[in-house]
Specification:
8 helices, 2 domains, Aminopeptidase, GNAT family N-acetyltransferase
Length: 276
C-alpha cells in the first residue's frame, strides 16, 4: 500500500472525507446547540457543520499548531485516513464522558478514521501523531476508547462503526454481560448508557469518531480510567510508541560514527607506507 502521511493544513480541508469535514461531535459544546441538561448523549443531528469544523481547525492551528495528520493514497491522491488531536481545553466534548477529565499534562487524541480498504493507515497515522508530539515536547497522549457491544459492526482498524440495531441489542441481553463492572458506577451513568444502547443508538454518539478500545490497547496505551463502555487511555511519550523516536536518533548517530570511522580508515589506507 502506497501511503503518504502529512499534517493537515487549511488549504487541504476540502480534500477530507465528507464525514470528517462535517462532524463536530468533539469540537462543539452540546450546551451551545440545545437547552437540555449537558450530556455526552446529545442529539447528534445538531453536530454536523462544515463551517464550524473548519473554524475549529483554524483556531487550534493559530493558537497551538498542527492538530491533524492525514493519510493520502499515492495512487489516487485521495485522503484515505485522518487523525485529530488537540489540547483538552479546545475539545468541549472531552469534559462530558463518564471517565473525564483528561489529564492536564496530556494532549487528547480525539479520533482516527480510515476509509474502507485502508485500515492499515490507522497505526501509521498514530505513529505520525506520536512523532509530531514527541518533537513538540508533549508528555503524554490520552484518548477515550469505546468498548463495542456485540452487534456493532467495525469498519476499520481504528474502530469507527455505526451503533447496533435496537433489536440486536435487545436479543443479546445488552447490559447483562456488563452488570458486575457497572455496579461501581453511579446509577445515573448506568441509566444514561442503557438508554443510549436501547432507545436511541443512532443518536448522541458518533461512533465513527470514537477510537476503538482494542486499537488503543494494541497500540500500547494503558487504561487510566476504567469504564465498561468508555474507558480513558494514556500513552506516555517516553514509553510505548515513543521509543521509535529515540531509536531513530540513536541509529542516526551510529550511521554518522560509522561514516566517520570509514572515512578515517580510507585516509589511512591512502597514505604511502614510507611516510607513516
Amino acid at each position: 500500500m502506497n501511503l503518504a502521511v502529512t499534517r493537515l493544513d487549511l488549504e487541504s480541508f476540502d480534500t477530507l472525507p465528507l464525514h470528517t469535514r462535517r462532524c463536530v461531535f468533539w469540537e462543539v459544546d452540546p450546551a451551545s446547540t440545545r437547552d437540555t441538561e449537558k450530556s455526552i448523549f446529545g442529539d447528534f443531528g445538531s453536530f454536523e457543520s462544515e463551517f464550524d469544523k473548519e473554524a475549529w481547525i483554524s483556531g487550534v492551528m493559530l493558537e497551538w499548531g498542527t492538530c491533524a495528520q492525514v493519510a493520502v493514497d499515492g495512487q489516487t491522491g485521495h485522503v484515505v485516513g485522518n487523525a485529530f488531536y488537540a489540547p483538552p481545553r479546545r475539545v468541549p466534548r472531552s469534559t462530558l464522558f463518564p471517565t473525564s477529565p483528561v489529564s492536564a499534562d496530556a494532549v487528547l487524541l480525539t479520533s482516527i478514521r480510515t476509509e474502507p480498504g485502508f485500515e492499515e493507515a490507522a497505526p501509521i497515522l498514530l505513529d505520525s501523531v506520536v512523532t509530531d508530539l514527541v518533537r513538540r515536547g508533549v508528555r503524554a497522549i490520552e484518548a477515550f476508547g469505546v468498548v463495542r457491544v456485540p452487534g456493532e459492526t467495525e469498519t476499520g482498524t481504528a474502530g469507527p462503526a455505526p451503533a447496533a440495531h435496537p433489536d440486536d441489542v435487545a436479543d443479546l441481553g445488552a447490559l447483562e454481560t456488563m452488570t458486575s463492572e457497572m455496579r461501581q458506577w453511579a446509577d445515573e451513568a448506568i441509566v444514561e448508557i442503557s438508554r443510549t444502547m436501547h432507545d436511541s443508538p443512532q443518536q448522541g454518539l458518533c461512533l465513527q469518531c470514537i477510537i476503538d478500545a482494542d486499537f488503543l490497547k494494541d497500540s500500547g496505551f494503558d487504561v487510566v480510567a476504567s469504564h465498561p463502555r468508555f474507558p480513558r487511555f494514556r500513552l506516555e511519550l517516553d514509553e510505548g510508541l515513543g521509543w521509535k523516536h529515540e531509536v531513530e536518533h540513536a541509529l542516526e548517530k551510529l550511521v554518522v560514527m560509522a561514516a566517520l570511522d570509514l572515512a578515517g580508515r580510507e585516509r589511512e589506507a591512502a597514505v604511502p607506507v614510507g611516510r607513516r
